[in-house]
Amino acid sequence: MRARATLLATGPVRRSFLSISLAVSVAAAAAAGASSAQAAARPHATSASSPTVSAAARLAGTWQLLPPAPVTSLPGDLTAVWTGNEMIIHGNYSPPNGGIRGVTFAYRPATKIWVRLANGPTRASAFETTDVAVWTGSRMLTFGQTSATYNPATNTWRQMPLAPMSLFGAVTAWTGHQFLAWGGTCCEDQSHDGAAYNPVSNTWRKLPIAPLIVRRDASGTWTGRDLVVAGGGHRVRIGEPLILLRDAAAYDPATGRWRTIAPMPRRTNGATAVWDGREILFIGGGRAGVPGPAPRGLAYNPVTNRWRLLPPMAFPRFGFAAVWTGRQLLVWGGVTVSGAPPPHGEAYTPATNAWTALPASPLRGRADPVAVWTGRQMIVWGGFSNGTPSRGFTDGAVYTPTR
Question: pTM of whole model > 0.90?
Answer without folding.
Answer: no
